[in-house]
Amino acid sequence: MFATRIRWQNPLLLQTLTRLSPMAAAAAAATRFSSSSPNPNPVSDNRRRVVGTHNGSFHCDEALGCFMIRLTDKFSAADVVRSRDPQVLDALDAVLDVGGVYDPSRDRYDHHQKGFDQVFGHGFNTKLSSAGLVYKHYGMEIIAKELQLDVGHPDVLRLYIAIYKSFVEAIDAIDNGINQYDTDQPPKYVSNTNLSSRVSRLNLNWMDPDQSSEKENAAFEKAMTLAGSEFLEDVHYHAKSWLPARTIVNECLASRGNIDPSGEIMVLNRFCPWKLHLFELEEELKIAPPIKYVLYQDDRSKQWRVQAVAKSPDSFESRRPLPLPWRGLRDEDLSKESGIPGCVFVHMSGFIGGNQSYDGALAMAKAALTI
Q1: Per the record, a Pfam family (predicted)?
Q2: Cα–Cα distance for residue pair 75/71, rounded to 1 Å
Q3: Which residue, among 114, 82, 336, 326, has the nearest Cα to 215 in the 3D structure?
Q4: How far is 371 from 57, CA to CA, in rounded Å?
Q5: What is the sign, positive or negative, of the torsion defined by CA atoms of 34, 37, 41, 44?
Q6: How far is the C-alpha of 264 from the C-alpha of 247, rounded, in Å?
Q7: Rounded to whole angstroms, how far apart are CA atoms 72 and 143?
Q8: How many other CB atoms sit within 10 Å of the CB of residue 326?
């Protein structure tokens, strides 16, 4: 097969590769592109496999899909062929985003054909793009390899679902033209900073006199690296930050009955990003009544905070704000009004307050439940 090995001469691309894991960096750096037909001669099963997608303008879904599938054992560092010729595509080991076929048994991952209605499952209903299809079938393997875990490890499944929600689903939705909100109103501002928009801008400028397949393939290479590096950053964020925080919130939620008989006050034994985890775990565990206040220690001041839980993740309105007579008061004035020593402040909106001690913060939360 005719193929041109891409050499990393662009310093920005070199800088991007250095942030990837060794496995991902090797896969990205070894990409080979071709616009011609692959070698028709039979080869052993140990041969370097070939992944195909369409040529011409590219989008984020096939750029990410090609990056991800080459992180698998089956398609490790596979060559990439970009073509719309059915005879070329039929001879390839995997085909993404072109060909009009979805058949995972033959590694065919197109989503444009009539009647296609595949979704990720696990409660998600967004129609999949080629990226979502590759992730659905190979995501757990990719995550397990990247984090050096067994694919059956329970954390792999948790991360698999969380990463789809936080990263892949938006790419599926944008590629399939699904609006983020159910509204007929025009958006109040333009947002072109999402990953799909940034990948789109890597396509050849229509004013560029050089519209060759070689230059187009080089642009697609950049798109793969951009989409793939951000995907892997999301994997490692979820493994190193999201998952430990979820574990802490889950444990503290389970012990809330030891804090107050109402079960409506939770104390974080270690501060972490807790808000989204709390909403998700309340729904998963059918927590009733829902948590009203979360207590945690401010690492800088060593004071304690009592924060009212919002009504929803994107709401500024609290389920039960701290009492109106306390709001806007500080120090002795607040302690006198509340009858609780050591008070520091309560915000004007009532969403957060502070006390010098844990006992004082807990007393504020308990009193707020009764006022």
Answers
A1: MYG1_exonuc
A2: 7
A3: 82
A4: 61
A5: positive
A6: 19
A7: 10
A8: 23
Q: What is the pLDDT of residues 171-209, one digit of tens each?
A: 999 999 999 989 888 888 998 999 999 999 999 999 999
Residue range 16-37: mean pLDDT, rounded:
50
Q: Give dist(CA 355, CA 344) in Å, integer.
A: 5
Torsion over CA: 274, 276, 277, 281 (sign):
positive
Q: What is the pTM of this model?
A: 0.83
- 225 burial class (0-12, 13-18, 19+ CB within 10 angstroms)? buried
**Strand 119-121, strand 102-103: pairing:** unpaired
Q: For the range 43-49, what are the long-range contacts, defined as Cβ-Cβ under 8 Å and sequence gap of 24 or more?
A: 48/77, 48/78, 48/79, 49/74, 49/75, 49/78, 49/79, 49/93, 49/94
- Gap between the Cα atoms of 356 and 181, Å rounded: 43
Give me the torsion for CA of 175, 181, 182, 187, rounded to 10°.
-100
For the chain, give the mean pLDDT: 90
Q: What is the pLDDT of residues 230-267, one digit of tens each?
A: 999 999 999 999 999 999 999 999 999 999 999 999 99
Burial status of residue 290 (CB atoms within 10 A of its CB: 0-12, 13-18, 19 or more): middle
Instruction: Record the tokens describing residue 169, joined without a space.
Output: 């689903």
| Residue-wise pLDDT tens digits, 302-318 | 999 999 999 998 899 99
State the Cα–Cα distance between residues 269 and 253, nearest whole angstrom. 11
Task: Identify whether 290 is preceded by a cis peptide bond (ω within 30 of 0).
Answer: no
**Contact status, residue 217 vs residue 35, Cβ threshold 8 Å:** yes
Angle at which helix 154-163 crosses helix 243-254, to 10 degrees, equals 110
